[in-house]
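Input sequence (295 aa), recorded before submission:
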Amino acid sequence: MATSQISLVFQSFRPKTLSAAVVPVVVGSVASFTLFREFNPLVFWCCLLGALFIQIGTNLANDAADFVKGADGDDRKGPLRLSQSKAFKASTVMGMATFFFALALLVGIPLVQIGGPILAVLGLISVALGYAYTSGPYPLAYNGLGDFFVVAFFGVIAVMTTVYLHSGFWTPEGLVLGLQVGFLSATLIAINNLRDIFEDKKIGKRTMAVRLGVKGARWKIAIYFYLPYFLCTYWLIPHYGHAAVLPFFALFVSIPVVNKIFATEPSPEYNKFLAQASLHTFVFCLLLMIGLYIA
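Predicted structure, token format:
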């Protein structure tokens, strides 16, 4: 494989979005140690690899399905996709997605042994929805359900499951953390969909951005950015005040990004906003974890 092809394959993993897989595992692990003084290295690494493999598999399946359905044409505003580049057939890219989904199931075996049948069910559902995000008879992204998928599976379920695997407990703290992480991750898909709103509308891809229009999509992005700050009020419960306050320093990152989105028409400029939103997720969650740890 030529160097240029290797670079294309790596870019098809969408490294800027992989924070959506890493952050919930790290946050859930820190929360488990903070709340219960429980941390299992095997759980951490299996959860982390499993989440990364599912994210990469979903991205590749999305790459192949969008190309086949005509969503990735010559007028695409985002980075060049693997199928779109014609370096690989869409069927080959879908095969790569299947490979990463299989890896996710493989690293999930120790987690099933620790967490029981419920982990097997959650793992299979996660892989199935990774395919269904843009493939199958009712693709989630084409019917306005992509945001829900991200909040639920890369937020609530990912964080709560990580806490449970470390500690053996399902906790309300895990739910709140999961919602915070989920909404932060949803900013990425929301910005991506607003960038592509006009192209998606042409081919009948009914994302939330298409359904809401440019103005509504901008307000939805702002809500996704700022809801995690509102949820910080939960951490005002005794002993966790630092976790309620420290994340607000991330406003220095979020406010400029939101302002730029409101001031800029959907265009390739939004690729920069995606990177900035990913940075915001990292900064917010880092401050939140520090706040929990020093409580």
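Checked by second reader. The chain is about 75% helix and 0% strand.
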